[in-house]
C-alpha cells in the first residue's frame, strides 16, 4: 500500500510539472486579487504571477491538511491514554477485590462430594401416623 501511495504522489507531481511547463506564458501573467468586505476598506495586494498564487494555494492546502491530521493524531493519542488509565484503574480494582475475597474451595473438596452425592430416597417405615393424611 505504501508503494502505491508513493507512486500516486510521484504521478501527481509529474503531471503538475507538465502542466506548469506547458502553460508558462499564461501562468506568468500578473493577477490582482481583491478582498472587499462591507465594514472594512477594500484590500488589494501587489500584482502576483498566477503560478505563484497557484503554488501558494497548494502549499496552504497542504499545511491545512497536515494541521488537521496532526490534530486528529493528538485527539486519538489522548483517547488512547485515557483508555489505558481506565484499564489500569480497573486492573487495580480487580486486584483489590480478589485480595479481599476468600480463595475458592478446591475442586476435589467438600463441594464436589456434596454435588456427586445422590439424595436418599424417603423411608416408608414411619411408625407414627401423619396427622395431615386421612388414612
Key features of this structure:
135 residues; mainly alpha; two-stranded antiparallel ribbon; 4 helices; 2 strands; elongated
Characterization of this structure:
The protein is an all-alpha fold. Strands 1-2 form a two-stranded antiparallel sheet. The chain is built from four helices and two strands, in the order H-H-E-E-H-H. 61% of the residues lie in helices and 3% in strands.
Order of helices and strands: HHEEHH
Tally the helices: what do you get?
A: 4
Tell me about the biggest sheet? 2 strands, antiparallel
Radius of gyration from the CA trace?
41 Å
State mean pLDDT (0 to 100 scale). Answer: 83
In order across it, which strands form the biggest sheet?
1-2
Stretches where pLDDT falls below 50 for ≥5 residues? Answer: none
Distance between the termini: 90 Å
Structural class call reads: mainly alpha
Helicity level, as a percent range?
A: 55-70%
The global form is elongated
Number of strands: 2
Strand content: under 5%
Amino acid at each position: 500500500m505504501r508503494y502505491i501511495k508513493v507512486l500516486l504522489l510521484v504521478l501527481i507531481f509529474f503531471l503538475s510539472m507538465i502542466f506548469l511547463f506547458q502553460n508558462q506564458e499564461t501562468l506568468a501573467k500578473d493577477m490582482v486579487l481583491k478582498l472587499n468586505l462591507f465594514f472594512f476598506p477594500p484590500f488589494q495586494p501587489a500584482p502576483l504571477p498566477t503560478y505563484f498564487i497557484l503554488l501558494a494555494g497548494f502549499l496552504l492546502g497542504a499545511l491545512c491538511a497536515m494541521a488537521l491530521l496532526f490534530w486528529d493524531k493528538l485527539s486519538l493519542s489522548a483517547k488512547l491514554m485515557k483508555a489505558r488509565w481506565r484499564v489500569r484503574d480497573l486492573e487495580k480494582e480487580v486486584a483489590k477485590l480478589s485480595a479481599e475475597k476468600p480463595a475458592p474451595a478446591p475442586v476435589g473438596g467438600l463441594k464436589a462430594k456434596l454435588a456427586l452425592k445422590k439424595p436418599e430416597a424417603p423411608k416408608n417405615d414411619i411408625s407414627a401416623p401423619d396427622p395431615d393424611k386421612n388414612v
